[in-house]
Amino acid sequence: MPQARPTAPDTRDTAASPDSPATPPPAGTGTGTGTGTGTEGVSTPRTRNPYAHLFAIPGATAFTIGNLIARLPMGMFSVSAVIMIAGARDSYALAGAVTATGLAATAVVAPWTARLVDRHGQARVAVPATALAVLGSLSLLLCVRFGAPDWTLFASYAATATTPNTGGMSRARWSHLLKGRPDALHTANSFEQSADELCFMLGPVLAAFLCGSLFPQAGTLVGAVLLLTGVLLFAAQRATEPPPRQRTSDSPKAKSPLRARGMPALLSVFLATGAVFGSMEVATLAFADAQGHKAAGGVILALQAAGSCAAGLVYGALRPSGPLDRRHVWCSAGMAALMTLPLLAVAATGSLVVLAGALLVAGMATAPTMVTGMTLVQRYAPEGQLNEAMTLAVTGLLGGIACGAAGGGWAVEHLGPTAGYTVPAAAALCALLLSTARACATSTRARRSARTRAPYGA
């Protein structure tokens, strides 16, 4: 890999703010990094299918396959841990506390792991970090199997917090390969969001099947093997890996992306969006249980993920116009509007079938919101800190999911299953308000900057 200092990914649209990076090179130019990706100076034929154009880039298919294998277990581990611990210790409270501990540890450790990835490279950090996380999963499996004290379960699951943000690393590669090509990067981000939805839709189903049909530890064991295998395959694709951020003795100390202008407000939107996901999951499982069809809850939630996955792929094939900040507001507005459908469905009909249709439609608004949000993260991320910035966004989502699950659980417990759906609707409205306030602040800052640069008397 060359040791030249990488430039920040430029994902501006035609109406980017003054805080955005410098003007990108013309579309279709090479990355200029000399990494041998095969994109430099190559004229790729135009095609009606933007995804075919995307995967025509040499090495893109290879790193995507490895990343998908590594990403699938992300939807398996928590379900597998709950089934395994609850079955062996006869305590869902213990199982929930252990998985919550792992979530909290991930929120603390993941940004530091991502910072090391930015500084030293994906392959050098992701492989040992994954190995440590896999050891934590295997330790949890053995502690449950042989009846170790409860504290060992917490310690083992906390060790899995070193799992690298595989989705963020994949998005970082696309940003590197598609620098100066915002339309293609929009398609790549849409594909990655759809892949997230697919993995979190199939992961829990696969985990439950393995634990139920084989043995209680099967989900954790298979997930650990898939994670390590996928990361090794992904890391082996060195030609598409973005070069690490080089530091010299006179380089200024890197600041956290949290201090980048625009990032804190954007992360607050991710927090509210995560609350939509967490509360919707709890409310749906509780409503299905109240209807006497507990097993149907997972299937209905899978329909929501399916709707989001399909919408993400369609959104990636489109070429939306207008400022990115404004698109984010419109996508948030769509999410706020559609998240009222599940509440209306259960309040008006009380039917699981109608609820399933409402969740399928409601899910179609989440992927476009996430895609535009992640593109904004790529815009505001400081130079050489893209992995850390995107991991902070994922951490915000996880924090929101935890808060949403707690809020949804309280509403279900004290107000009833139907009232539980008011929480995701309120969280979506909160995300819209935060997105609107952020966009207005950005627009105001841009106008002030323009007036400052304007000649006197203009």
Automatic annotation (TrEMBL):
Residues 1-47 are annotated as: Disordered. Pfam families: MFS_1. The chain crosses the membrane at residues 51-70, 91-113, 125-144, 221-239, 265-287, 299-318, 330-348, 354-377, 389-412, 418-441. It comes from the Bacteria. The keyword Membrane applies. This is Transporter. Keywords: Membrane, Transmembrane, Transmembrane helix. The keyword Lyase does not apply. Gene3D superfamilies: MFS general substrate transporter like domains (1.20.1250.20). Residues 29-39 have a biased composition (Gly residues).
